[in-house]
């Protein structure tokens, strides 16, 4: 048996050397392009409207935290940067070009004019695909055919293949790379994906055809292919396609390595390894008009793919204020101080707090009033809303109260939990989340909620709390997140009791998912292997790494689960 394995590895190494040698000859072939998603263009208002009465500066922020009145000027600056970058060859936009495209045609007209002007002046192509905000086949809506006609020159005009049932198309980017633009949207529903067997197999067929033609296939779609949150299927289930792992398996083995998506509005890169050892990367992109006003630049060779994030740090403020009336001197000053890291950041925090404050209501959470844990969760949610407003430090603050229950709240610059929570959310959207399991931020967050639970549950036993947590997880469909929940609980409390497991089960679906990204792929700036590096040896190593990772996860979970069960039973 050992001799057989040795022979196989030797043959694999020979193939690997041949592959590397062949690709080395073409090292100088580069491809550089920009990817920006979810432009969400809105025709600007004549005068700013108040949306958040209690805000002193950002009263015009909205629950989507998007700079809608500024959108057109942000898009203009993005296109200007792409035009001035001589190495940028083309632009990809994975959907949601406009915000209300189903009913406001003028939004499409404005964006199409901007893109056409860019192409005419630079000669650089723009390739788009529709998102859920762009079109639908409901009666009276701007339809899929309308979208294709409006943006025909931005992909379909050069298409070498199209899918007659959707807006999907295929176009050659150069003599080595081929783009598959996949219409992943449901034809009528507002946010969910429309993926089915036919669309999946169409992509696989096109990818295989690309390989037969000597091309490397790249995929662009609006919905996410892979998870960009630890429990995305729960809290953002309409943002990731159905059967995403099995689909990723098929796409990876058909030769696709790069996927560009949007929809979730986060800057996140993650990887999936198929059973055959093929890797596929899904680069989810932020909304261009939402903090951090970000897009990515990709540079590709046979050996490596390099990517870096770019931000919109300034816009034509004079043009903005001459178009939209009502900006205050303080708002304008913040734009001049920093369009992205000052103005957009603070606008974002105000909008997210407004949105979460509305969503943290029992009627919004869809809980069954007949469920045996309803009263318990209702009490927690109500107390949580009060705690978010409470100062963390000072007399009567969370830190002082927590000490009475044996919980130490670390010192920080955060004023209240809203300040902390909106910061965690901002880092999720901006990518590169660094709040690991031992960070001050996660510790403050969980121990603050622990204080809430210990005051609320002082008369409830651990076994009851454990059953509540298990029931909650099962009903909400997050059994696959057990490892993440366990890791988080252990990091904050050390040895985990059932009560603390219940705490994390309740808190993490709402908050923790935005805090920490440990998938091993840098979100904003990094280097991954190029299309020309795939070898049999490499795939064998990928499979080995995958098996080791799975075994470690199983051992970790079983060890901690047994520990908790013993504590509960004994």
Question: What can you tell me about this protein's structure?
Answer:
The chain is 45% helix and 11% strand. The chain is an alpha/beta fold and 570 residues long. It folds into two domains: 353 residues, Purple Acid Phosphatase, chain A, domain 2 (4-Layer Sandwich), CATH 3.60.21.10; 178 residues, no CATH class. α2 links the parallel β1 and β2. The protein is globular, with a radius of gyration of 25 Å. The two termini are 48 Å apart.
Uncertain parts: 1-26, 509-513
- Beta-strand content estimate: 5-15%
Classify the helix fraction into a percent range.
40-55%
Distance between the termini: 48 Å
CATH architecture of the largest domain: 4-Layer Sandwich
* Shape annotation: globular
Instruction: Please state the average pLDDT score.
Output: 82
- Secondary-structure class: alpha/beta
CATH-defined superfamily of the largest domain: Metallo-dependent phosphatases
In short:
By secondary structure, this protein is an alpha/beta fold. It is built from 19 helices and 13 strands.
List keywords for this structure.
single chain, 570 residues, Purple Acid Phosphatase, chain A, domain 2, seven-stranded mixed β-sheet
